[in-house]
Amino acid sequence: MNYPFGRDLLLSSVGFERLLDAFSEIEKSVSSNPSPNYPPYNIVKQSENQYAIELAVAGFKRDELDITAEGNKLTVTGKVAAPRDGEFLHRGIATRDFRHQFTLAETVVVRAAELVDGLLVVRLENVIPEEKKPRKILIGGGEPTLVIENRESRAA
Questions:
Q1: What share of the chain is helix, strand, coil (3-state, %, to 5)?
Q2: What Cα–Cα distance (Å) separates residue 9 from each residue in 2, 4, 14, 45, 106?
Q3: Do residues 100 and 109 touch, judged by C-beta distance below 8 A?
Q4: Rounded Cα–Cα distance for residues 119 and 117 (Å)
């Protein structure tokens, strides 16, 4: 493997292969499909584990938008069903088809989506499993020691 950030970082890292593969995948995705700038969007960290992706979708109806979560990919698609009626003397609000793809961490889940004031807001939560949270590791004195819910028990 050839990583652009150097070998020294990997000398003290264990089990990060999937993360490094994800970075490689993102890099390939960006180089083959540059990040679209339409529609404009925000990624907001609302609290320690709460996030929101806000896309400016003025002019799109609810049934012209589609949100799909598959694996660690979140895809937001907008397809205009029919051209708007009337002759435009000035067209400043773009309503063209789009597709945005976001890469989510393994622990991030989509909680909700809503269309509010011309913004499509996708609410996300980083759900850390109990086994991934920090815990104290006891050092045993010769016999195997198990830590169960922060209580010590001796293996028989």
A1: 15, 35, 45
A2: 12, 11, 10, 27, 22
A3: no
A4: 6
Q: Is the distance from CB of 107 to CB of 126 less than 8 angstroms? A: yes
Q: How many CA atoms lie within 13 A of 113 on its CB side?
A: 15
Query: Which has the closest alpha carbon to 73: 111, 38, 22, 120?
Result: 22
8 Å CB contact between 50 and 124:
yes
Q: Which residues of 88-127 are buried (b: 16+ CB within 10 A; e: fewer)?
A: eeeeeeebeebebebebeeebeeeebeeeeebbbbbbbbe
**Which three-class secondary structure state does DSSP give residue 71?**
coil
Q: What is the pLDDT along the chain (156 residues), one digit of tens a residue?
A: 555 555 556 666 666 666 677 777 767 766 665 556 889 999 999 999 999 999 999 989 999 999 999 988 999 999 998 887 888 889 888 888 999 999 898 899 999 999 999 999 999 999 988 887 788 888 876 666 555 555 454 554
Place of tokens 């028990």: 153
Rounded distance between C-alpha atoms, residue 52 and residue 121, angstroms: 6
